[in-house]
């Protein structure tokens, strides 16, 4: 790479931290991504309520209803085990009913466990549906529940439901890096949470012929001093509290924001940018006072601004090019003569991409694309410099997509990003060979290995 110029006409690179994550400021205010999840939850609720008993169309919902029944019965059995009961069997019938047979246990605990347990499981799944990693962990929890259900199952339908949905979760786990799993977990969570609502309506409004859990509980608890309707209403509100709590905790716990300090990933990437473009040409915007105070000394030589990108002194909107996956055209060498500043979002992208650039897009900057594959922020800055300063067309820059990084013969990790290829000559058995590797910041491989080991420990 040519030496870094510090000439005043050299193009400038803006890394906007706050604007990409400003909606995650604090508390329960939903970010743009979280608002999408809330809309999806609303759509799920509407679809489930419409399809629940609709002729013909309800067939679509039938397998999921049977899964929900399975979670209801599992909750009976799990609490039964906790109260020293012996579980004889769990059965789900084609009419979307179920029964758990046990000996012993405490009925005051096991009877409400079906409704309340399944609604609690639903609330946990809804909470985890706000985050892909949390959804993966929740799917493991759900899989364990189904495995126990399989252990206690005594009919083919119960076994089939367990096997099918465990298989579906395994498939979704690996499909598109788990993106579909997030929405599956969210759907099952919403449906399980609504199960109590519908069954209470079935018991209190439609007065079904067989005894419900609420009816049995009313006889056991207090000698029938409260009717099954009263207990049903209490259980309904408890389930509703579970669901609302799951949503609120999801909003608070899985908020996409930047910490006051800098993650090691960001620090390494930013140092790499500094090396590539020079301190005079690198700008950081939207830095909190604490973030600026805690920044590594090496980065403080760049232009560090507390203001958001629109309020940096001397910056004009028409001089800024936003590097945007949805830009109207690809970045070209001619853009170096048209724009003075090139703007990047300062958060390492998610896999799959979550389009966080839209928060900057709303501000009205003209956009350019850097190809179809997501890049790390430092790679995006490096590619931009090569195109607009070195005048190398994008298609002539050598790339490697989704490289697999090997730490040993059996240990590797696939990076879901595009990198510039770095060629190195190595000598093996007296022969010189040229190997191609992804160009990463110094220290990144060691950090990836450490983070990968931590992730394995978490599971």
UniProtKB/TrEMBL annotation:
This is DUF431-domain-containing protein. It comes from Umbelopsis vinacea. One of its GO terms (molecular function) is methyltransferase activity. InterPro entries: Peptidase_M50B-like, SFM1-like. The keyword Nucleotide-binding does not apply. The chain crosses the membrane at residues 36-56, 120-150, 156-176, 183-201, 233-254. Pfam families: Peptidase_M50B (PF13398), SFM1-like (PF04252). Keywords: Membrane, Transmembrane, Transmembrane helix.
